[in-house]
């Protein structure tokens, strides 16, 4: 068996249909210089049938283990990977057919120790998925931190579309089981002195959550984990991370003032939401998606902001839950 340049590692938990579509997209790659490692993390509905279906088209290995979390599942795959680079996708991603030929060319021309790409919505995705994709990727809502052309923060690879070299793994180690473990991993890689870059021409199609309720819960956890990352890495908090909390507090203030003082004080918030609607309509060319993008954006900012504020109050103001010493111990790998 030829030595693969890339090892694709995907943790899976009850995602049979998603894995089938992901493997189909990998089977359609224009080059096959990679292996795929599917780590089933204790699923009650295993995806082995989908793996067997595509095994004749791609080099794919399937492992089933007890449920311990996605980071441990990724590390399980890392221990068994043969490639020079490790690539991480979420199971709900679809990979464009030229992905691997593009990143191979990019790395040949400009070698990087760690890299990542943006995520986008495929034409086949539902209107809900496209609206949530806008909320997660628009500069107006996230500041372009997920690989946008303009960004308020230094690019940080995330595991929906992330890769690093074997040398990185041998020095930095694997993922830690925590929320925002990919941001933690990217930070450790950067602190170890490795190069990190954005491969903007290598996006993946990310299917997102299928309901506003699931999406709100996801971004709420993201907001809480930002405080954990702040405790782990003092100085890592940037202005862009404060904006959702500012949106929550500012929106409450404007609504109260518009009711109690002057109605027109609500206009700044209305103008911002109108800007979201217009830019979503222009980018999607769909009135329905633009209308759905407004509540999706409110949930993205509001959910993240509430999670951030709650964690800030509990962990920093009241010093409850995991204290700073425990965060430092986690950072040191104890």
Describe this structure in words.
The chain is of the alpha/beta class. It is built from 13 helices and ten strands. The strands form two sheets. The chain has a seven-stranded mixed sheet, sandwiched between helices. The protein has a three-stranded mixed sheet with strand order 5-10-7. Strand 2, helix 2 and strand 3 form a beta-alpha-beta unit. Helix 5 crosses helix 12, helix 9 runs parallel beside helix 12 and helix 11 packs across helix 12. The longest helix has 31 residues. The radius of gyration is 21 Å and the shape is globular.
The strands making up the biggest β-sheet line up spatially as: 3-2-1-4-8-6-9
Q: What is the CA-based Rg, rounded?
A: 21 Å
Structural class: alpha/beta
List segments where confidence is low: pLDDT < 50 over at least 5 consecutive residues: 327-334
**Any idea what the shape is?**
globular
Determine the fraction of residues in helical runs and give it as a percent range: 40-55%
Give the number of DSSP strands.
10
Number of helices: 13
How much of the sequence lies in strands comes to 5-15%
On the 0 to 100 scale, the average pLDDT is 91
Distance between the termini: 38 Å
Largest sheet properties:
7 strands, mixed
Q: What pattern of helices and strands is seen along the backbone?
A: EHEHEHEEHEEHHEHHEEHHHHH
